[in-house]
Amino acid sequence: MKWILFFVAAFAQGLGSSDFSYDYYRLPTSLRPQKYHLSILTHLDNPEDLRFEGTVKIIIEVLENTKNITLHSKSLTIEESKTTLRQISGEKSENCVNSTAVNVDQDYYILHTCRELIASNIYELSLVFSAQLGSGLNGYYRSSYMCPQENKLRWISATQFEPIYARMAFPCFDEPALKASFVVTLGYHKNYTGLSNMPVKETKPHDHLPDYIWCEFEESLVMSTYLVAYSVNDFSHITSSLKDGPVFRTWARPNAIPQCRFAATFGPKVLNFYEELFQIKFPLTKIDQIAVPDFETHAMENWGLVIYKENILLHSYKNLDLSERQTANSIAHELAHQWFGNLVTMKWWTDLWLNEGFATFVGTLGVDHVYPKWHYKDMMHLTNILLLFQYDSLESSHPISQNITHAHTIKDNFDYIAYNKGSAVLRMMHAFLGEESFTYGLKTYLNLYAYKNAESDNLWESLTQASHKFGVLPGNYDVKTIMDSWILNTGFPVVNITRDYASRTANLSQERFVLSTNQSDLKSKSCWWVPLSYTTQADQDFNNTSPKVWLECDESGKSAPKTIKDLPGPDEWVIFNNQFSTLCIINYDTQNWNLLTKTLTTGSLKSFHIMNRAHLINDVLYLSWIGEQDYETAFGLVDYLQREIEYLPWKAADEGLDRIKDFINHTPYVGKFKSFIRKLTTPIYEKLNTTISWNSNPDKIMLLAITIKWACYCGIEDCIEKSLLMYRRWRSYPFGDEFNPVPKTLREIIYSTAIEHGNEEDWEFMWSRYQKSSEEAIQLRYLKALGFSQDELLLQRYLELIFDLEKPFSVDHFSDAFHALVSTQMGFELARKFILNNVDLIYKHLQRFNANAWAYGLFEPLSMLILSQDEFNSFKEFYYQLFYNSFADEMMEKLQLKLHFIERSSYQISEAISKFI
């Protein structure tokens, strides 16, 4: 395609020159910072000139003689005439900086000293610097909100330093192992408030700027640079009650304070839980959480000042939506980091999962403790695994622990592998070690490395000692050997179970599970230590998750098959992996699959634990996808869902059927698929519609939401009519912004159904609601629904609105709107034409998005438009020549799998479904 060359030429840029005298990706080991005195003066008065200036005095310990000071600095103007260096310990002598150099590639600022710095001496380096407050969302940057009282844009400042952006705010040794204490002083106009990691020590007038003040904060505990945080804002706050604990405050723009009540109530409760769980008090005297209008990620765990994106933290307590439990999840995750990440920090970003995997896993425990009726542990574990399987089954996946050889690739590791797989393997370890041993090992680890840095091996050592102390592992087993196979290998195993019914034995073997069907060599290259529990039709003991058998790896990393004995006879099933505790897919022989399916379709569903019912659905749909099971077996088992009235199995089915729907929607077989969905959904839809109230168990409400989604998709008239009725009742109400009769949990489904089957007035009403709303979470819901219209003129207009450069959407709004539009048949076709006819416009949008936003804001929806191998080849060339990152291979592999799936499986699915409709 010629338009590829246009983009490539437009984006070709050269790099500035650098001094590569020191070009290793890690800082030299000759120096260690002890303390930073950081003063930042922030100017928010003039919207045309939002900037800051500062001074940093770094107390440096010399570990090895050196004549260079190498630290990090990026996008800062350093006034070198004001740089000073003085010795403050040892046999004092004059020193200075006689020259500097930069290494742009590594973000190094290198100072050459007049005299050699002597080991064991202490020096003070003082640097004066300045910069504009960034328009991006990294470093020290600006954000804004509209003040409704003044109808005026208000500016604030905030920080986002993880993983390598502290260097954009002040010169520093920007690596996690180089911990130091920080004394932060903020200067700002007196109409604002200053926040940082620590409580305020004192405030005083600025020495020469009228109406400005200096606010000095107490000296911090030792911490990594990526955890330093500060903000200048005009926000209000809620102070929560926390007995014998730190001052706990929740901050937001003044008109959003009512939406902070849930966060302000939940946060202290989960903090108390962690103190009891770890038997370590939160070490600071205050903790603030703040909702910022513009933030790059969901949230950031800065010690004592946790920053959240607005739509994550702000929700009304009285209107808390079940689908918005991410508020509780995010708070629990970030507060878990106060121990895992802040108190004990990884030595290098290779062990990022020690931060994120632990916070994800422990966060589920925190939410489950505060809201036990949510059944949050099982729900989030299943959610984690379902999401993880989508990515870790790709050839382009990567290990949990990765070797990082350039700082600018660190950010790529903040993905589903670090978070979801990290959490899943920790839950697995919790299951095979047991509660007592696991918790004892964690406490030992946290106390041993408090205020220090650690790596995976340090954790394994503590847990091995605990496992042998409590006798939960054989003496010749150690946690490192077991867990290294999970954090150093890419992917996860499929365990093949082949029973010999005559001898009542079974052979067990493992191989890597990959979605690509032409990767036989890849499947056999990895080996995991797999803990396997199992139960039988006679026992039905699903509560015991301790392994009855281990699949082991030999010294060469190979796995030998294993035989187990004393299994039941040919008329009774065996089921492995109680409660889905181990991260694997289980594939049984045909007879055992048939025995399991028979019980599900005609026996008591209570014969299987709810997590194992979800396990079976997940596994059989994945195995049929790659051809290891036929679709007749898969749909035969899934057919039991007509009887299923629990949320978690339907959650697994929802994910698996969604994968098929996304692919089959653009084939001639979509009608048969909808007929099968109608068969599965109708009994449950009719039952729930008459028995569920909005005071019911949360699981039942979430099940109702899934059921209504599929009922409306497959065209059940009652579902469509009720959706339109509820939506138009909302439309008819004179104060639609204040009253909405659509239950919050169902709004996304009801809105999209009403827009799909409604008229132009329905569409215009939702567009007006989007324009009037100030809550991002609600705005995004409106934007997604608007793309479901089946009116060609409305969709064409919507495309033009999405790509309107005069009133441009934010990255998130653009991504969600465009993604929803191309997910429908009509929107898909219109978008294909629009993209090809508006190349110049697409290019202009690329210019205003950074690389990560391209991947998720534009290129992922664009990839949905590809239907042929030729189009794929052109798109791949286009994408790779614009930029390359770890998401590129992932996106291309998923796209190639889609094309292979359409070619290989759509007819097979059609034939199999015909036997069940």
UniProtKB/TrEMBL annotation:
Span of domain ERAP1-like C-terminal: 573-879
Active site, UniProt feature: E334 (proton acceptor)
Domain Peptidase M1 membrane alanine aminopeptidase: 266-486
Matches recorded under Pfam families: ERAP1_C (PF11838), Peptidase_M1 (PF01433), Peptidase_M1_N (PF17900)
Residues annotated as site: Transition state stabilizer: Y419
All residue ranges annotated as the Aminopeptidase N-like N-terminal domain in the record: 33-227
GO MF, one example: metalloaminopeptidase activity
Cellular compartments annotated: Cell membrane; Membrane
Keywords, alphabetical: Aminopeptidase, Cell membrane, Glycoprotein, GPI-anchor, Hydrolase, Lipoprotein, Membrane, Metal-binding, Metalloprotease, Protease, Signal, Transmembrane, Transmembrane helix, Zinc
Membrane protein topology class: Lipid-anchor; GPI-anchor; Single-pass membrane protein
SUPFAM superfamilies xrefs: Leukotriene A4 hydrolase N-terminal domain, Metalloproteases ('zincins'), catalytic domain
Cofactor note: Binds 1 zinc ion per subunit.
Signal peptide positions on this chain: 1-16
Identification of the protein by name: Aminopeptidase
UniProt source species: Drosophila ananassae (Fruit fly)
The organism's taxonomic lineage, starting at the top: Eukaryota, Metazoa, Ecdysozoa, Arthropoda, Hexapoda
